[in-house]
Amino acid sequence: TFCAMKLERLGNICRVRNGYAFKSEQFVDVGVPIIRISDINSNTVKSENAVRIKFNPVFENFKIVNVDLLIAMSGATTGKYGIYNSDEVAFQNQRVGCFVIRDEEKLSSQYLLQALRFLKPIIERKAHGSGQPNISGSNIEDLVISLPSLSDQIQIANILSKAETLIQKRKQSIALLEELLKSSFLEMFGDTRSYSKNDVLKTVGEVCYCRGGGTPSKAKPEYYSGNIPWVSPKDMKWLYIITSQDKITEQAVKESSTTLISKGAVLMVIRSGILK
What we know:
five-stranded mixed beta sheet
């Protein structure tokens, strides 16, 4: 059970500090790492592959340490965030913002990390500039978050972190199962690329009939008030398609290029990036 939460402007409890515009000619092989947007990955920021620079007291105001929370301020990944996870002191690049918590007794960095999961879409919408989207620190500080007590923040962050870990493990398990299915298929049926000309092979077109789908006119809402499932790419999330988000009428079938398919037909998306 959590205590009642109050809403708080993010800038009242932390500020977003901009980084420094380091120049490539300053980079060295051995030195202090500079964290750039490319170093922010999967909510974690590491320094292993970061470019480096000689230490200079001028850069002291841009220093980051372990558990500092960073966010991408420009580019295609504006809003991408992560916690710096290294014992090595580093500096932040110009395009990377750092959340500086004003009072550790009011805001937990781990809670803020979880809050950014929900704030990220808002941050992306606030980003401006078509070629190179970017967002200012003040835009982020104007966002409002729920702020329970510090003890509740820590408890909430722990629960959400455990859930996130379980989700990642499940994704890894699914990926391993996918690889197992592929390898099992090859073990059972072989790799067609290694067959010789003497082997009996058939093309897909020789053993089945393939046809395209059709879309009833969106200008006629009456087409989409029936109970016949009309499968589109957004429904292709499962191995077995039971129903669809959109339903059409018999009139739509008669007056458009779409056709009915029978149970057991294999469907494939052919005109988008998912190719499900």
